[in-house]
């Protein structure tokens, strides 16, 4: 057990046994729909590739994540885990994880900033040799507060767009002192998790939180990266009128040629029924936009951190703030307009009170990539220098092949002649 002031999850609960049982029920349901992790877990149980390794994790601790954690623990690892967002932890799932003999969970829903970072410190006190992060807070804490551990860390994995952005900036400054796989950037993550996962889960969480329809609404999507593309596509599929805002000219042009209106946020805000931010950057919706937003607008964030909507400015402008319904904070302006912020501006698909995160099948793919990347660090960690690394393509393909096999889908293979043709430069017209 950690010696920090922050104890494991079960010491925070009134009825740990009941919580464990409910958490286990959620995990078992999810695992029925996770064929990739099921296959990898069977392999890891036999080969125990992680014997002798300690894995420190900062993740969204809910049922799907928990199955990744148990897959690594069943492969022999000692795992310590905490949350990567104060509102995305499911306490019952955290308790179920903590019951595993190889897992200590510090994840607790609703902690304040101080306790959030205390829990990260508690994980680090286990002296991890591998890190698995969602947002890069653990990597940052190790470098800032525990540089003595870096020589014993084999490497890490980072799941999110925001986390990879932070890591690349850290790497560019020469400050990243161990290798980290950019799991977010691999095709099995971007093409499915970011597009389908974020698109479906963000819209579902907003709809369930508000009990409102998408049909006929003007939905402004801030950012047209993979997550923004998914949100825009799914909203249009539910008969919303979609407007995209962008700062990158090629993405803006792509959105335009895919049929969406493209406008500056200052213009789009005037007619918005819903604004969903997906940029990973701060101050996307600010004071100038609050001044023109219509009464009743919904403001939701599908980026990692709660900085995309300027809540400080909104709070200063509001004459009254109250909870309109669970997960919806209404900010009333002096002119009577009500601007509604979902999930405190945090990641709406995980932080809203009834949010469940990405669909199970989607996360099975992403967590499969995480699992094989951890295996790669154990088997070939010496081959990677400090810095950000792309996931080896053969690992990404391995996960895709497991998924296809589980679905009973067969595909063609290149013949020797075709392979030679593709690999050659001397076949002209």
Automatic annotation (TrEMBL):
SUPFAM superfamilies: Formate/glycerate dehydrogenase catalytic domain-like (SSF52283), NAD(P)-binding Rossmann-fold domains (SSF51735). Keywords: Cytoplasm, Hydrolase, NAD, One-carbon metabolism. Signal peptide: none annotated. It is found in: Cytoplasm. Its main location: cytoplasm. Its EC number is 3.13.2.1. GO terms for molecular function: adenosylhomocysteinase activity. InterPro entries: Adenosylhomocyst_ase-like_sf (IPR042172), Adenosylhomocysteinase-like (IPR000043), Ado_hCys_hydrolase_NAD-bd (IPR015878), NAD(P)-bd_dom_sf (IPR036291), S-Ado-L-homoCys_hydrolase_CS (IPR020082). May play a key role in the regulation of the intracellular concentration of adenosylhomocysteine. Belongs to the adenosylhomocysteinase family. This is Adenosylhomocysteinase. It comes from Salinirubrum litoreum.
């Amino acid at each position: 057990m950690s010696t920090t002031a922050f104890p494991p999850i079960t010491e925070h609960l009134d009825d740990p046994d009941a919580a464990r049982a409910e958490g286990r029920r959620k995990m078992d349901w999810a695992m029925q729909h996770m064929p990739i992790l099921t296959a990898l877990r069977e392999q890891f149980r036999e080969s125990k590739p992680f014997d002798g390794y300690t894995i420190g994790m900062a993740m969204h601790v809910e049922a799907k994540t928990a199955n990744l954690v148990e897959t690594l623990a069943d492969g022999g690892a000692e795992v310590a885990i905490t949350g990567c967002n104060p509102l995305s932890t499911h306490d019952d799932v955290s308790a179920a994880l903590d019951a595993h003999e190889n897992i200590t969970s510090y994840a607790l829903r609703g902690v304040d900033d101080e306790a959030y970072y205390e829990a990260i410190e508690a994980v680090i006190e286990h002296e991890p040799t591998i890190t698995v992060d969602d947002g890069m807070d653990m990597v940052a804490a190790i470098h800032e507060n525990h540089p003595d551990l870096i020589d014993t860390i084999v490497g890490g994995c980072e799941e999110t767009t925001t986390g990879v952005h932070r890591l690349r900036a850290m790497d560019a400054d020469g400050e990243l002192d161990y290798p980290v796989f950019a799991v977010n950037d691999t095709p099995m993550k971007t093409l499915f998790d970011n597009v389908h996962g974020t698109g479906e889960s963000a819209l579902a969480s907003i709809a369930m939180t508000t009990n409102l329809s998408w049909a006929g609404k003007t939905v402004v999507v801030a950012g047209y990266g993979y997550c923004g593309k998914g949100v825009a596509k799914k909203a249009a599929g539910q008969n919303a009128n979609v407007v995209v805002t962008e700062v990158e000219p090629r993405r803006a042009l792509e959105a335009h040629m895919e049929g969406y209106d493209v406008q500056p946020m200052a213009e789009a805000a005037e007619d918005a029924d819903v604004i969903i931010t997906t940029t990973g950057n701060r101050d996307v919706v600010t004071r100038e936009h609050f001044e023109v937003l219509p009464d009743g607008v919904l403001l939701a964030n599908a980026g990692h951190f709660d900085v995309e909507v300027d809540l400080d400015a909104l709070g200063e402008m509001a004459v009254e703030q109250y909870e309109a319904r669970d997960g919806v904070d209404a900010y009333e302006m002096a002119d009577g307009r009500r601007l509604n912020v979902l999930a405190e501006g945090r990641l709406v698909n995980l932080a809203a009170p009834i949010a469940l995160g990405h669909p199970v099948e989607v996360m099975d793919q992403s967590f499969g990539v995480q699992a094989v990347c951890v295996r790669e660090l154990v088997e070939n960690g010496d081959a990677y220098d400090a810095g950000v690394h792309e996931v080896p393509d053969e690992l990404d393909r391995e996960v895709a092949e497991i998924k296809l096999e589980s679905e009973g889908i067969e595909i063609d293979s290149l013949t020797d002649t075709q392979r030679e043709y593709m690999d050659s430069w001397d076949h002209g017209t």
